[in-house]
Structure formats: C-alpha cells, structure tokens
Design a protein that fits this description.
It is a single chain. This protein has 138 residues and is of the alpha+beta class. The protein is 14% helix and 28% strand. The strands form 2 sheets. It has a 5-stranded antiparallel beta sheet with strand order 4-3-2-1-5. Strands 6-7-8 form a 3-stranded antiparallel beta sheet. Strand 6 and strand 7 form a beta hairpin. The protein is globular.
Length: 138
C-alpha cells in the first residue's frame, strides 16, 4: 500500500528542506516533491528506505505524486492482514514467504510484533532457512 508523506520537521538550520515523499509498501522512496512543490524527482534505485527517526511527517495528497500512484490491484499469492495494536491499525503482507508491515518498528528493525502475531496465527515461521527448498508446506 503506497502512501504520500509530507515532512513537517522543524530544523535548526535554513538549508535543510522538507520534501513530500511517495513511498512503496515497504517504506522505500519511489519519488519525492522537492520542498513540497511541483518539481518531482523519481528515485533511480528504488532501494532507499525513508529514515523517519527524529523527523515528523503527515499523510498528504500531493497532486503530482498522486499521479504516479498506480491503481493497486491485488497481487496473486499475496496475503494481507489487518492488525490492531492499541488504537492503531497496521497492514501485514505475506508474499513470497516474506513478511512486511506498515508500522514504525518494522521500518527501523525489519521485524515487529505484528508480524510475529500473524506468523503465529498462520503457523508459519517469520524467517525462512537460507535454502528455501528445505521448507515443506502442508
């Protein structure tokens, strides 16, 4: 589930800009709007994860970045679980025997209690052995 986040961090200097980011379901930057304006920069590698530590963000609906959003169709073989934790709700996805979660803990550590809870309910391990062929599913 892609999302658009506008940075609202107050910096102690004048040269640090706050951008608006388009993120994929794993928190990686797809593109960003420079200073929240009309100039869109598309990520070449698509492999940079947005570091949210010590920064503040709000969900946004930037028109330029919204045009880049594809209408997301359900993928074959992807299972989506909604997990409630206190007053918040998170999305846990299982695809190709790998989990991902929309919570902050997963963005920082690559694992979280929401994934552990889903894996326990599904009776499926959160980590696979290096040789994926060694796993027998019943």
């Amino acid at each position: 589930m892609s999302e658009i986040l506008k940075e609202t961090t107050v910096w102690n200097c004048d040269f640090q800009a706050n951008h608006t980011y388009l993120l994929d379901n794993k928190g990686k930057i797809i593109a960003h709007a420079v200073n929240g304006g009309d100039t869109i920069m598309i990520s070449k590698s698509g492999n940079i994860k947005l570091d949210k530590r010590y920064r503040t963000f709000v969900r946004s609906n930037h028109s330029g970045l919204a045009k880049l959003l594809k209408t997301e169709k359900p993928q074959i073989g992807v299972r989506v679980f909604l997990v409630k934790s206190k007053e918040k709700q998170y999305t846990v996805e299982l695809s190709d025997y790998a989990y991902s979660c929309t919570c902050t803990g997963y963005n920082f550590r690559g694992k979280c209690k929401h994934i552990d809870a889903v894996a326990k309910k599904q009776h499926f391990p959160t980590m696979l052995p290096k040789n994926n062929n060694a796993l027998a599913l019943s």
